[in-house]
Amino acid sequence: MGNDRRLRRLVVDERTAYLWSVRHKHGDGDVCREVLSLTLDGVRTRIVFRAGEGRGVSDGYAYVGCVATGPGRLLNLREPGVVRGLVDEATARGLLPGQAELDGWELFDAVLSRAAAATPEAPPGCPPGP
């Protein structure tokens, strides 16, 4: 991916278009975190994933933008489909649109489940994945 700092556009319906970006941040005595910034009509919402017990974020070098809770339980925040899942889940919970900082881990399981349900199963006889 070229410039990870650029604003990208996510169109949710014909009228709603979010601008979004992902950053890896740390400092000010806080733990490492991945921050998905969403802007709609000038209102910014940040979905923050902080590193912690059983909750991993990228180290800023490898797998930038990824958050995970264990093997096979990973979301890549640089993927538009994942961002769309987070927007849909936050909207369904009444958290978007709105100016706020949201705890991304509260949305994680629902988005991961939604993504798994949308992924077709491997055909019979297919070798296991990595």
Account of the protein in words:
This protein has 130 residues and is an alpha+beta fold. It has one domain (8-114). Helices cover 21% and strands 38% of the residues. The protein contains two helices and eight strands; from the N terminus they run E-E-E-E-E-E-E-H-E-H. It has helices at residues 80-92, 105-118, and strands spanning 8-11, 17-27, 30-40, 43-50, 56-57, 66-70, 73-76, 100-103. The strands form two sheets. The protein has a five-stranded mixed sheet with strand order 1-2-3-4-8. The chain has a three-stranded antiparallel sheet with strand order 5-6-7, with helices on one face.
SSE order and pairing:
Blueprint: E1 8-11, E2 17-27, E3 30-40, E4 43-50, E5 56-57, E6 66-70, E7 73-76, H1 80-92, E8 100-103, H2 105-118
Parallel strand pairs: 4-8
Antiparallel strand pairs: 1-2, 2-3, 3-4, 5-6, 6-7
Helix pairs in contact: 1-2
Condensed summary:
The protein has 130 residues and is an alpha+beta fold. The protein has helices spanning 80-92, 105-118, and strands at residues 8-11, 17-27, 30-40, 43-50, 56-57, 66-70, 73-76, 100-103. The protein is 21% helix and 38% strand.
Characteristics:
alpha+beta, 5-stranded mixed beta sheet, globular, 130 residues, single chain
When the domains are counted, the total is 1
* Helix and strand element order: EEEEEEEHEH
Bin the helical content.
Answer: 10-25%
**Rg over CA atoms:** 15 Å
Mean pLDDT score: 85
Low-pLDDT residue spans: none
Most strands sheet: 5 strands, mixed
Total count of helical runs of at least 4 residues: 2
Structural class: alpha+beta
| Beta strand count | 8
- How does the overall form come out from the CA principal axes? globular
Q: Going across the biggest sheet, name each strand in turn.
A: 1-2-3-4-8
Strand content: 35-45%
Spatial gap, N to C terminus: 22 Å
